[in-house]
Amino acid sequence: MKRRTLLLGASALAGSASLPAASFAQDKYPSRPIRLVVPFPPGGPTDVLGRRYGERLAAQLGQTVVVDNKAGAGGTVGADIVAKAKPDGYTMLIGSSSTQVTSPLLMPQAPYDPVKDFTLFIIGFVPMVIACNPELPVKTLPELVALLKANPDKYRYSSSGMGSINHLGAELFKMQAGNLVSLHVPYKGNSPALQAALSGEVNWLLDTVGTSLGQYRSGKLRYLAICAERRSSVIPDVPTTAECGLPEVLVSTVNPVALPAATPAMETNVIADATRKIMSDPKFQEDLRAMSIEPVADADAAKSAAYFTAEMQRWKPIIEASGAKME
Q: How far is CA 282 from CA 124, 127, 287, in A?
């Protein structure tokens, strides 16, 4: 409740009964449950990260955090809900590169501005790997490039959908490796795209490390390169794309937490401070790295906005060249 103070001058009080001062304490934020919108189905990487972050946010704030999965249109359905929510600090988003970069670029008219309509705090990077079915006669990324060059249109790759980061990352790889020709087979989600590669229905794909790590360790999937500037401590034997001669092939899913842009400074600062404490916890960082998520401890809104602005500029020409459209 907003604080209200009734001030009466002495002249107004003359001859009347004295009135008690009316004073109402302002509710401390948060005073009720916070809704954390996950714009993808349960079980995916963003959902898992969102739920783990939500548990710790609830502990930090002493208030319930309710995870609400609102999937659709590459994550834009859920993101739009948050962009247009009442800016009171009680509706948040756990976003991704899809909601803040690629999906809005794929739409003729995006329902929200992925940077201006939010206050964003990046909390994690999930690197992607170029992987293949072990039956494919290649053991390194240069060998995959040579195979695809020698056999245009023979080999196929899967993705979690047209315009997904898996799809666009693969198109970036093909362009940078000399405009390779390889048929794209889109699936409805990460899991079926991975299963297609495991079964041999397709030959290769880009996938997040966390999603496919078990299959890699069991020998059911072969990792060729990680699309990052540095090797991962989880898979230290897998070279980077730069080591394989393709330094521009940098692909990862980046997860921010976000509030509507008009959220007042007090509520925004509470979330920012809590997020810094959560992401700076060594145990939580260890847990995230075990899932191949690189935590970001500095909840900085300006840096996060600048990052996503630059990413939109980087991916726009790739999307245009690929001809990808929102399904």
A: 14, 20, 9
Residue 9 identity (one-letter amino acid)? G
CATH of 127-226 among 3.90.1150.10, 3.40.1160.10, 3.40.50.720, 3.40.190.10: 3.40.190.10
Residues 40, 78 contacting (CB under 8 angstroms)? yes
Domain 34-126+253-322 has CATH 3.40.50.150: no
Q: Which residue type is seen at 224?
A: L
Note the helical H segments in the chain.
Answer: 10-13, 45-61, 76-83, 97, 103-106, 141-150, 165-176, 190-199, 209-217, 265-280, 282-290, 301-322
Express each pLDDT in 208-266 by its tens digit.
Answer: 888 899 999 999 999 999 999 999 988 999 999 999 999 999 999 999 999 999 999 99
**pTM of the full predicted structure?**
0.84
